[in-house]
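Why this split exists: single-chain examples teach little about how molecules sit against one another. For that reason, every record in the complexes split bundles all components of an assembly together and asks for one structure covering all of them. Below is a record exactly as it appears in the raw files.
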Amino acid sequence: MRLLYTINFFMNSPEELVDFIQHGHQRYLPHLSIDCVVFGYHDQQLKILLLRYHGQENWNLPGGYVEWQEGLTAAAHRILSEKTQLVNLFLQQFYTFGDSPIRLNRIDIQNNHNKAFAKANVAITEQHWLSNRTLSVGYYALVDYQEVTITPEYLVDDYAWVDINEVPPLSYDHNEILDKALLTLRSQLYQQSIGLNLLPEKFTLPEIHSLYEAILGKQFDRRNFRKKMLALGVIRQLDERRKIGPHRSPFLYVFDLENSNKVLEAGAGVAL
Amino acid sequence: MRLLYTINFFMNSPEELVDFIQHGHQRYLPHLSIDCVVFGYHDQQLKILLLRYHGQENWNLPGGYVEWQEGLTAAAHRILSEKTQLVNLFLQQFYTFGDSPIRLNRIDIQNNHNKAFAKANVAITEQHWLSNRTLSVGYYALVDYQEVTITPEYLVDDYAWVDINEVPPLSYDHNEILDKALLTLRSQLYQQSIGLNLLPEKFTLPEIHSLYEAILGKQFDRRNFRKKMLALGVIRQLDERRKIGPHRSPFLYVFDLENSNKVLEAGAGVAL
DNA sequence: CCAAAAGTGTTCCCACTACACCCATGT
DNA sequence: ACATGGGTGTAGTGGGAACACTTTTGG
């Protein structure tokens, strides 16, 4: 059962924004952020969620800061729920970024922030906490595309789901973060119950088939794919069908959680 | 060719220690550390390097802080070279730890530090930079056990190579870090040229066979193991043998770097 | 000659691949 | 009836697992 809550937002008024800029250093750890690569699936395409902040040209991954007394994983969940209203997401840490030039040199960051935060009428100086060098912990999330309701924050001018094959240049090193997330997702595809979070509870074989093709960027034989998924025991066929218009009704399947967990334990897990 | 350099040390005098405690916050990013799990192989056992700091009962993983203008990967290499004198190590980031109680609550840390730094005669207050909440980025390293020369820092009372099956309770959440490192190592064993860094340049089949058994904690059939390694193309048999006393002389093998790289590119890489 | 360790080949089975025709449904 | 998409089985192949005897060497 997936639970959907409506949660409290983050910065949805000019006052909250100014408070964030002026007092954020009292609330958040400096030098550390979290960036989330949110994968969604729709229309046979694998997409990611991008945000564009006020005054910036480039798109960004949704991200945020860690509170002083907050666990890292908890922070990732909070940040994501602030952007998507989804909780109980599948969320996986995959790498911490601290090498690219943008993460060593703070000039561009200061510049960017000044544009983004122009709405607040508060200048971000070189000494300001937001101008600090910041390392970023990358998490990827998997969401059921149709259940996500994006409620942009005050600072977010625009958001978009974009196909992973048509991702524009992003701010900072976010393209690099995305690339690594995608690599990780692909390598973990058969070890984690990936589809569980990208598909509705009941789905058809063609649906999960297309999903795997979209994620891995290649094609699979229908018959062999079904055999493999059943042999691995990650999905189970139901005795129901779905009506899909003027065509034969496909069977419905569900993820077999008991078996999936066994598969997970067997495959040692971690990758790079 | 592996290169061994002697590098500059870190804290090898009371003066440097006091300087570190008093002025470290000017040199290092706060709230962030790096911990390294150094795997070494000897006597058919997989071991890790542990340090014990002055005044502490428990053992620690070698670790350190990131300089303000230093890349994260560079910091990991620097920290490790300060402890082992080895450079050009295989070093792999595997997870960032920020959830366990010790990483949320700074009391114990302050307490520990006061014992450890007693040598310096400088009290670590609750406001001191070393008492801050600290997240840690985990790296694991693989070293050729016989080439490592440990030169303990001033603060390090003792060091030890301990079998991974006999690891005592460590400080902070270091046992958790070790567990995750080991999981990662195991899952990446056939994708990375792991053995390259744990064995001498030329090695016998029984040697690499025992290494794999030690890492994975289970046994493999000699004949099948050889077939698999040769089929994967990661090792190549030489026309030399090694004298090993009153027994048949085993052939020597080397890693086939050309082929290993191909294998690496093929296998998507990342895991967690 | 003996003890200890290394070298080597075959069989079996399962998992993955390739491949094409029939069925169901709504218009 | 037909167009569209879904469902299904078989044969071949290659890689992994199981398995035991012979050879080398120094003492």
